[in-house]
Each structure stands twice: as C-alpha cells, then as structure tokens.
Amino acid sequence: MPFFIDTHCHIDTILEWNKDFSLEQMEPAPEAIIHVACDPEDFNWGKEFLAKKEINGIKLYGVFGVHPLVAENFSEDIEIPKALALGEIGLDYHYKGYSADLQKKVFLKQLEIGLKAGLPFVFHLREAENDAFEILRQIDSEDIKAHIHCYTGTPEFAQKVLSLKGNYFFGFTGAVTFDKTATIREAAASIPLNKILLETDAPYLAPVPFRGKTCTPAMIPQIAQVLAKVKEVSIDEIFKACRENTREMYGI
To answer: What is the DSSP letter of 96?
Structure first.
C-alpha cells in the first residue's frame, strides 16, 4: 500500500461514535493524519491529542478554526492554536436556522486572522457558491493557499475557483463513491490531478462499501479507487499525486 495521508478527519468525534476505535489498530494505516478542531470547545482536546506528535508510527498534525455552523462561538478573544492551517472556516447554507450574515462576518474575520499570520486555510463551502466566490474574489491573491474540504460543489464552481490567483486544492471524501453523487465525480473529473487531496472527514461519509459504519482514515483507499476511475489513471498515480499535493498544501 502506498503512503497516504488523511488530510481531514475528526479523531475526537470518531472516538465518540466508536469507543473501540484505535489508531494503533488501523489497517491500512496512514502515514499521517490531519485532525481538525472546528469548535472552540474542542480546541483543548485537539491540543492535548496533537502533543503526542505520533501514535504507532502515524504522525499527527492539526488544523484549528471556527466552523460556520458554530459561528456564534467565535469571538475576537479566542486564541486559535498554532497549526498547519486555519480551518475549517467558511459558509454552510444547507441547514436552515443559521444566520448567513453572521457566517460571512466570521468567515471574513478568520480570513483576516489567517492572512495576517501567513497561514493556509481549510474551507468548508456548502451550498453557498455565489457568496463564497464573492468573498474569495475579494481576497484573491497569489499569497492565498487553501484546501476546499469535502468538495461537493459543481464542476463550474471548481473552475471559477481555479481561475483565481490563489493556490486552491479540492478534497474528496467518501461522498465521491455514493450512487447519487455523479455531480461530485464530474467535478473531480474536471479538476486537475495536481489540485486534488485525499480526505475522509471521518467519522462522517464512510465510502462504499462501508456505508452506515463509522468512517476512519483507513478508508482512504476506497476513495482513491473511485478517483482513479474518474481520472482514468492508476490508483498508484492517485496516491502519488495526492501525496505530492499534500506536501504542497501543508508542507508535510
């Protein structure tokens, strides 16, 4: 099995869903994982977990930020821990009852923080293409580096993002393997291979054939297999390209 990194997962939530989960017993084991803490309430757990640096040969890295669905938990007094990137931040209009204005305000504020610190970003952009692109257009710069995580948008939106000056990568999860997600596969087909990242968003979105189970970083190969078919390349080429893309995006 080639080396691979799960570029986006939530280890604390995996453990909540499956008390028997163990990084030490994962097979196949990733080279590394990027744990994402996207609620200030979870920052301390994330810092303690990442302090271990490595578990059974799996290197541990982290990303911290305030998710759009908990935008009300953001304040300018929050100390966002040092990490590989700031995220996941952005816009999510899928669920009703959340203020779009608050989401945009918090998104812009965290962009300001990240740009000042010279950090890359991890974006959560769901069903908010027009507002998201307007914000990305406003901050457009060659200094921007970002991972649009769990990409479920259209091929057209991906091409608009790629037309910007920034360096954007698109993460694909188990959602790319589902029967009713042809649009995601069309988007993956339209995005250059050097702009694709492998991620699980575990414990969510377990790929086929594991639907209904708790997703873990060990399920990356099933995602890679579908991407290989979509991109019409070998699975080894997917692993190799995505590993290089991870180095370009995160420096690891």
So the answer is: T
Contact 196, 169 (CB under 8 A): yes
Angle 62-113-252 from CA coordinates, rounded to 5°: 30
pLDDT in tens, 57-91: 999 999 999 999 999 999 989 999 989 999 999 99
Pairing of strands 54-55, 58-64: antiparallel
The CA R_g of the chain, rounded to the nearest whole Å, is 17
Geometric angle at alpha carbon 155, from 63 and 122, rounded to 5°: 10
> Length of the chain, please?
252
Residue 230 CA to residue 155 CA, distance in Å, equals 13
Residue type, 228: A
Q: Is the peptide bond before 192 cis (omega within 30 degrees of 0)?
A: no
66: nearest Cα among 25, 138, 124, 147: 124
Enter the pTM of the model.
Answer: 0.97
148-164, pLDDT tens digit by residue? 999 999 999 999 999 99
Residue 100 identity: A
Beta bridge partner(s), residue 104:
none
Alpha helices in the chain (DSSP H): 11-17, 43-50, 100-117, 129-138, 155-162, 182-190, 220-231, 235-250
HSE, side-chain direction, 13 A CA sphere, residue 171: 28
What residues form DSSP beta bridges with 63?
36, 85
Q: Which residue has the tokens 């040969």?
A: 57
